[in-house]
Every structure is written in structure tokens, then in C-alpha cells.
Amino acid sequence: MTDYAEEQRNELEAIESIYPDSFTVLSDDPISFTITVTSDAGENDETVEATLKFTYVEKYPDEPPLWEIHSQENLEDRDVNDILTLLQHQAEENLGMVMIFTLVTAVQEKLNEIVDVMKNRREEEKRRKEAEAEEAEKVAFQGTVVTIENFLVWKAKFEQEMAELRRKKQKEEEQGGKAKLTEMLSVPHQVNSCLRQTTI
Q: Among candidates 26, 21, 89, 98, which has minimal Cα distance to 63?
């Protein structure tokens, strides 16, 4: 017959010596504790962190412990769900053996993967922005590529603008011509009036 209490005590002592700075006992009955797991630092010293809370059930390790993510930093909801799913799979694979170290190690690896994904996303975003800027620069430098379609559209618009300018110019000339004609007609009248004044 398995002495569950003895196995649990032995594992607890081992866990406490492996994770002295991140291990905290929350209660003795049932035995409940937290272990804070932090990823390795990423490129810009960013980390992700999860504090895992484990509670031994009476027949642990023949039954899996209870677990939850007690707190976390910089994790998205899907990351939290991935970690919980990972814990479930690892627990099923390790039934019958003490498994807290295995579960924590799996979460540690997952957190490192998350930091790598964050780095890759950032690099991909940077590459995308650089490509967009390069493309915008090419377009600005090249101008618009002339095709038959856009040339015909431009030509029609140009001809319409030129016709409008000709109409305006002609209208101005006509109005200017009337003014000149009026001036020309009034010149003889002014000459006659000047002549009359000199003769008087």
C-alpha cells in the first residue's frame, strides 16, 4: 500500500530545496503551495512569469494534484490557456510518480517559448514596417506607372482642362474686344469735343 503522505512530504522537501526563492507554502491541510516560474530574459530583458498554485489531493501521486495559475505577468489569455493544457497533458503522462518538478520544468520551457515568440513577432513587425517604408519610398520615387488606361484618363482630363482654358481666354478676349471697340468709338467723339473747345 502506497504511503501518499510520505511521498508528498518527501517531494515537498525536494521542491523547497530546488526552488528556495520562489516556493511558498500556503496551507498544510490540504498541502497547498505556490512556485513562481520566470522565463529567461528576452532580447530587451523582457520576461514572462507565472505563479503556479498546487494542492495535493489525498491520493497524489496516483491522482494528479490540483493546479491553477495564481498570478502572472506579461502573459496573454491564450498563453495562460496553453499553460493549463500543458499541465493537464504532463499530469496525465506522469500519473503514479511525483510530478511537481516535471510540471514546473514544462511550464519553464513554455515560458521561454513564449518569450521567443514575442521576439519573433517583434522582429516580424519590424521587417514588415521596413518593407512598407521601402515600398512607399519606391512608389514616391517612381511616380505612377503609365498604362494605356491611366494615360487615356489623364489625356481626357487634360483636354477638358485645355478646352476650359481656351473658352475662358476667348471669353476674356471677347470682353476685352468690346471694351476696345467702345474706347475706339469714344476717341473720335473726344477729338471733336477737344477741337470745338480750341475753336471757341
A: 98
75 within 8 A of 48, measured Cβ to Cβ: yes
Q: What is the pLDDT of residues 110-128, one digit of tens each?
A: 999 988 888 888 888 889 9
CA–CA distance from 33 to each of 25, 27, 95, 97, 176 (Å)?
Answer: 4, 7, 20, 18, 99
pTM of the model: 0.61
Q: Strand, coil or helix: what is 95?
A: coil
Q: Residue 30, preceding bond cis, omega within 30 degrees?
A: yes
| Distance of alpha carbon 133 from alpha carbon 198, whole angstroms | 82
Q: What is the mean pLDDT of residues 170-184?
A: 70
Residues shown for the chain: 200
Q: Which of 55-64, 87-96, 142-151 has the lowest mean pLDDT?
A: 142-151
Cell representation of residue 158: 487634360
Q: Which three cell numbers stand for residue 70?
A: 495564481
